[in-house]
Amino acid sequence: MTNQSISQKTGLPKASGRICWQSPANIALVKYWGKYPLQIPMNPSLSFVLKESVVKICMDYLIDPGSPFQLVSFLLNGQVNAVFKSRIQKYLESLVPFFPFLQHAQLHIDSESSFPHSAGIASSAAAFSALALCICSIEETIGREAADGDEFLRKASFISRLGSGSACRSLYDGMVLWGKTDLQAGSSDDFAIRLGESKVHRSFLNIKDSVLIVNSDRKKVSSSAGHALMHHHPYREQRKEQASANLKKLLNALEKGDMSLFGKVIENEALSLHSLMMSSNPGYILMHPNTIRLLEKIRDFRTETGIQAYFTLDAGPNIHLLYSEADATHVIPFIKDELAGLCQNGRWIDDGMGPGPQKPEAGG
Ligand code: DP6
To answer: Hey, which of 36, 227, 275 would you mutate to test ligand 1's pocket, going by the most ligand atoms within 8 Å of its Cβ?
Structure first.
């Protein structure tokens, strides 16, 4: 619903309405680790979005040329959240150069997260991409010529990145690449792109991701602090080379449908990410004892059964177990019988590759 009129005094549109977007979290296969100012990544990364782990944001807006910007309210799952409100306020203020209408916007934001309460899964990529989509939709609604679909998503990806780097990869379904690389035409440090269908073998479509919740406490060291430690890291240059080499192998595996190479690369990326944390100065450990136990069990299961299930890790203790949909009948009983017991309160989430952001009706 939108109401719009032109202010006689300034010629700017006065408009009000409500926009909603739902956007997913993503899991990186080649990790973004280390960044320059304005979330320019030190290396290219590649990920896919999840189906169940999503954030829905509804934004009520009033654009009044006579009033300054104000984030009037921010609710997370129906509750006031002062910490998030202040982070989002700063983020929206930083977007004024790209969206001048924000200078005169009064916003009420309702955010709902599907992430199980304190599951220890980062929701910032889902939240910032949903916010970015709402802002781009408002811009389109209040009169700028409608962008074509590609341009709209590129801009949303660009401004998502300014909120949280990995958020720029949450805008697309399929496999998504962020970061300039000679390996892919059209790639950019500024926004993510979706790999074309011919570049991803059908065996990777609908890939499953079972998230094993080892610990849901707040992380001792944030990703932002971890990225910062890469500036003076003794292996910084080697990491950039390694990420590019792993990306090359992964692109090859995705195109050929080579699950075994896929698995080698993603496990190497996960273990390298945590090794980089341990060898930072100061070093730190985000894995828990049960993370290691689970990783060993996953490798043993693979050796014993030949079933191709591989792990990756975010910057935390929880494990993403990836396998093809066809193997779910073997992997799910293995999770229930052997892995769930090592998860916090037996918790794991049955997730997988999702369809990307959705625009629900603005009523709810
Ligand atoms: C380990 O995107 O959360 O998940 O840009 O500071 O918001 P900021 O960092 P963030 O870092 C994600 C790091 C990672 C790897 C990845 O998703 O590529």
So the answer is: 227
